Amino acid sequence: MLKKMCTKMSISNNKMVHLLMLSQLMLSVAHCAIFKATGRPTHNPDAIWGQCEVQPLNPTWSVAPVGSSQVPEVVDTALTCSMVNLEEERVGHITTPAATRVASLSVACSEMYHYQRILSHQHLAGFINLQELTMEHCKIKHLKEDAFHSLGHLQSLVLRTRNFDWSEMKLKIDSAAFNSLKKLKSLDLSTNNIESIPLQTMCQMHSLITLNISYNVIQDMKNLGFSDIKNEIGENYCGSSLITLDISHNVISVVPSKIFSHFDKLQHLLLKHNEVINVEDDAFQGLSSLITLDISSNLLVALPQGIFEHIPNIRHLRAGNNSLSVLPPHLFQGLELLQELDLSYNNLHADWRLSSLFQGLSNLQMLDLSHNKITVINQQVFSSLTSVKVIHLNHNQLRSVPDNAFSSCIGLLHLDLSNNQLTSISDQSMSGLHNLKFLTLAHNNIDNVGISAFSNLNQLQDLNLNSNQLRSIPSAISLLKNLETIDLGENMITSLEDNPTKGLQNLYGLRLINNLISGHINKDSFVNIPSLKILNLAGNKISKIESNAFKNNSNLQAVRLDSNMLTSIDNLFGDLSQLKW
Question: What start and end residues bound the annotated signal peptide (predicted)?
């Protein structure tokens, strides 16, 4: 069939081009080449205008209109074409009987040619049963009102000119360009340098579920092609069928009040990487089904009280990488279903700490407050977060962790407090964290860890204390019976005597690089650590290692001893059969 299809596509009265079959691979893929009217060239390879690959699909049957005498046809082919550029007479050439069998068409134009074209119905007139259409890098400057006139069965349309990289190339869209696409479910118009979409352009696509207008240059949200008036069909408003709307990477500065009031089915709204400085009151009114809201990477300095009251079903709220400094109390009130809250990379500081800020967020699983200017936390801030699994507080200005600060976070698995100004960890700082598995305290100024500081951390597997001011290995580590890896590198540890890691049966990774460890390493230094596989002692002042020092560590696979004061390592690794480096 594929061979016949390529042959059919080669027969045409069109004088501009011919399609010729190049090869057929394993009877499953056929390749066609597009040549100029003079036929296949013998000395001028540039005469090849493009080539296509034909692949079989599971057969389906076209649906004839009610009352029509049209005979249903088999639709069983995917066509992928690489072309120099888009021209009507050339793409139109593929409008042969074989084109009616094509369910999926992908056209990729050369990135080297920047000839702008107007897309009209002549380009695609023969593909009457097409369900999926993708056009990449074709420098289209204008979508005419009849561009998709014959594509009534189309369900997915991807049109990416990549004009985003060429500021002078804009895509203009006629208001009736998509009127024939009644069955379209997914529309991707990203990277087209679109400045605006005429009112009601999106209103005839009653089945549209996903709309991607990202990476364009739209400034006003009223220029997204919607309207406040009702559709001709039923009581549906324009765009009311949408589930996902991506407007990220544009230049929008304001989210107007009630702009989404008719999008009651919308579940995912992406507004990240714009220039939003103002989210007006009631901006999210009508979004009762919203699950994901991403307003990250904008220019927001404040959020109005009650801004989220219209989205009670929200699960994922991302507002990171803005300039937020103070959050109003009860900002997240009513968001009982919220699971992810990202406020990272803002300017939040001590003044924001209100015990009511996260009240009621009993289903929250991930809280990211990293890269802010927070200096103080207290127990009340996290008192409602009984389901939280991950808290990021790294890259702030915390000077201490108060007793019982996280005691209500009984399900916490991962706590990151790195890159702060902590000087000590008290006996009660980690109280209540019985399920914690990962604790990061790296890049602080910690010089003291309470003897019982880790007594509650029964499930801890990974502890990172690198880049602090520790002068010895904290004795509290001996209580961590499930510990698997510990990083104590870049401290001021001077000795391995009375090593608290002894007896940690599950420990397989120990990092002590760049400390001040001196003297000898003997057979007792790493005794009773049977699972130890990776040991890093590089960058210290060790002068001697006894020949039987690793006798009890038969599972060692990697040992680093470079940048020490060793003069000999003879007979050091003879019993380590699993050692790799």
Answer: 1-32
